[in-house]
Amino acid sequence: MKVFKFGGASVKDAASIKNVAGILSQFANEQVLVVVSAMGKMTNLMENLVHAYFYNNNNTSSILAEIRQFHYQILQELDDSSKMQLYNDVDNLLLELECMVENPNNLEDYDFVYDQIVCFGELLSTRIVSNYLVTQQTRNQWIDARNFIITDNCYRDGKIDWAKTEHIIANRLRPVAEKSLVITQGFIGRDSVNATTTLGREGSDYSAAVFAYCLNAESVTIWKDVAGVMNADPRKFPFATLIPELTYNDSIELAYYGASVIHPKTIQPLRAKNIPLFVRSFMDMDAAGTVVSNTAKSLDVACYIHKAPQVLFELSSRDFNFIVEDTLRGIFAMLAENKMRCGIMQNSAISFSFVTDVSETRIAKIKGQFENAGLNCKITEGVELLTVYNGVLAQTEKLTAGKQIYMQQSTGNTVHFVLG
Ligand code: ASP
Ligand code: MG
């Protein structure tokens, strides 16, 4: 069995969905489970809806209208002979979403509310893809991933309950997937009280890996709008080239520091069962792309990974106390509690610095907590994290030239810079 993942860019409009159908038709004789993300930038729009709803401002109806309009437009373009079956499921989902945000919000947990709403992006996209395939005589089974991907209740960052997930996928989903093409959602799951959870932004790759692990799939293919994994982001660095082969470890390192082609959590489950990962272009079926496997050779090209914007935190002790193990324990506890990740970090006797992702709600909150704990907390927004592997000195110098270097750290053949 193969697992395919199609991200937002691959289903961003009607033409793209037709292209996906074309790709799937080439695998008509194989067992395939397809994981699909929300269409285009729909998740961002859903995030706006969450914000408007949570803070009870008046924008919900205009955002809902935009969401409805976006999906309708695609349906109309897909529907060349007005087959009503395309519309029904989508209408039901839109109605469900509208009912949900109709009543004023009285819930306190932003992350919980977020997951209950944002999941609609994936539910809508998969209904549209699945129903469109049916109109093209491609039989398939739409399934709700929330019945199979079981997580804890850490909303927006659900952790997989592997025992339950593996059991239910092996027993309930496998027999279905052996008989029929399956279309399901990335990014979403559910917890033990049946609330929807999400796996973190861009988490659909990870969903594909979880399905593959539990199904003992022969491979996972992530279909992208780029040729494969590159040594730098081609939109930012003109010298970027394709990396044809990568080891699991190298790909984890690249993804962790911001190479946005693969979600960082994706690789671990695949490595555990030696399942190869193909990253291929959905625009060029003949191109080989990148294969991530245990037989690949270690990375020997230079890689430049740029992650921005990031936020730099510089903590120092207020009372000339040293920042010792105890203080660090407190700092890390607060980071974990706020679900914040340190990109890179550095400490001295009296200071501790780290970079983290931008977050509307978390930055101000944790700053307050640090200050309450007796720390000075300086925040610099809009910094960039540049990670260089096997760097060529001249190239690295070019990328850092004229910028303020807030932090620089090197280990082996890797150098990280925090630049402003
Ligand atoms: N739709 C989600 C997001 O945009 C998940 C994904 O695309 O992987 O973050
Ligand atoms: Mg996406």
Provide a descriptive summary of the structure in words.
- This protein is an alpha/beta fold and 420 residues long.
- It has 2 domains: 2-217, Carbamate kinase, CATH 3.40.1160; 303-419, VC0802-like.
- 39% of the residues lie in helices and 23% in strands.
- It is built from 13 helices and 16 strands.
- The strands form 3 sheets. The chain has an 8-stranded mixed beta sheet with strand order 3-4-2-1-7-9-10-8, with helices on both faces.
- Strand 12 (345-347) and strand 13 (351-357) form a beta hairpin.
- Helix 3 (60-78) packs antiparallel against helix 4 (85-100).
- The N and C termini lie far apart (47 Å).
- It binds aspartic acid (ASP) and magnesium ion.
- CATH architecture identity of the largest domain: 3-Layer(aba) Sandwich
Strand content: 15-25%
The run of helices and strands is EHEHHHHHEHEEEHEEHHEEEHEEHEHEE
Give the distance, in angstroms, between the N- and C-terminal Cα atoms. 47 Å
* Radius of gyration using CA atoms only: 22 Å
Largest sheet: 8 strands, mixed
Enumerate the spans where pLDDT stays under 50 for 5 or more consecutive residues: none
**Ligand roster:** aspartic acid, magnesium ion
Reading off the top of the CATH hierarchy, the class of the largest domain is best stated as Alpha Beta
Oligomer state equals: single chain
SSE layout and pairing:
Blueprint lengths: L1 E5 L7 H12 L6 E5 L5 H13 L5 H19 L6 H16 L9 H9 L1 H16 L4 E3 L19 H18 L1 E5 L2 E3 L5 E3 L5 H12 L3 E6 L20 E3 H9 L10 H6 L4 E5 L8 E4 L9 E15 L7 H13 L7 E3 L3 E7 L4 H11 L2 E15 L3 H8 L4 E7 L2 E6 L1
Parallel strand pairs: 1-2, 1-7, 2-4, 3-4, 7-9, 8-10
Antiparallel strand pairs: 5-6, 9-10, 11-13, 11-14, 12-13, 14-16, 15-16
Bound molecules: aspartic acid and magnesium ion (MG).
